[in-house]
Amino acid sequence: MKIIVTSLFVNDQYKALAFYTEKLGFVKKEDEPAGEYRWMTVVSPDDQNGPEVLLEPNDHPAAKEYQKRIFEDGIPATMFGVADIYKEYERLKEIDVKFTMEPTKMGEMIIAVLDDTCGNLIQLIQK
């Protein structure tokens, strides 16, 4: 068994696609009609056959509430690994990505948290 797709609730699929591709550097993998929404996924440019992140509409009331509550509590919705967190932090700040936590050493890892503008906090981690 392996992870092939993981969902991330977003409040606007197209805005999320733009943020994840243009700002974070992911690559659009799938973009297909799925009822009134789209099956829209992104992947790492370094592993385009690897796990996909589904930019899933938060249309269900439970999804909206979950997303709202973890955001308000400062809990990241997911985590992405980076090779050099300080370099990535500076690159993202230069293109106006807002961080709620600067790179911070936590044991053997360094983490930072950013706002994806689509209702989520995203944790970056350098192991």
UniProtKB/TrEMBL annotation:
Residues in VOC domain copies: 1-127
InterPro entries: Glyas_Bleomycin-R_OHBP_Dase, Glyas_Fos-R_dOase_dom, VOC_core
Domain of life, source organism: Bacteria
A Pfam family this chain is assigned to: Glyoxalase
PANTHER family reported in the protein's UniProt record: GLYOXALASE/BLEOMYCIN RESISTANCE PROTEIN/DIOXYGENASE, GLYOXALASE_BLEOMYCIN RESISTANCE PROTEIN_DIOXYGENASE
Designated name of the protein: Glyoxalase
Taxonomic source organism: Gracilibacillus dipsosauri
